[in-house]
């Protein structure tokens, strides 16, 4: 498994999954290839997501809101890990995916749902801090040598990293 291909999925593929894709591609070069998609893609990447990534020097080239259907079609790239980042607490519908990949749910609130313009940037910084913490934990795993069950358990443990830990 080299590089380990990870698909991040959320509802609109405009914020959380985009931040996750760009972050893992930035820090996991060589070992990981990150992709993202949405169950109901918005058709655009949220400008605050692009601003957050640019502020940390992470590339935004090629980022686009797209449907997860493209990864279920014949000829789609083989996936090793699929991570949903929808927020079940907000009653978002996360897609049900079938395949030989390892699946985990790393739910987090949608910063794009923030309606207060002044709070929007902080919502994106907070969401991205949590994503960075979780991606950092993923990078520490020896995914190349882990058995499927071990990887599943490790990914599910990463999902329990909280906002408090992300900002500590």
UniProtKB/TrEMBL annotation:
GO terms classed as biological process: response to arsenic-containing substance
Gene3D superfamilies: 3.40.50.2300
Top-rank taxon: Bacteria
InterPro entries associated with the record: Ptyr_pPase, Ptyr_pPase_sf
Domain Phosphotyrosine protein phosphatase I residues, every copy: 4-141
A Pfam family recorded for this sequence: LMWPc
Keyword NADP set for record: no
Keyword set, alphabetical order: Arsenical resistance
Keyword rRNA-binding: no
SUPFAM superfamilies: Phosphotyrosine protein phosphatases I
Protein name, as recorded: Arsenate reductase
Organism: Rhodanobacter glycinis
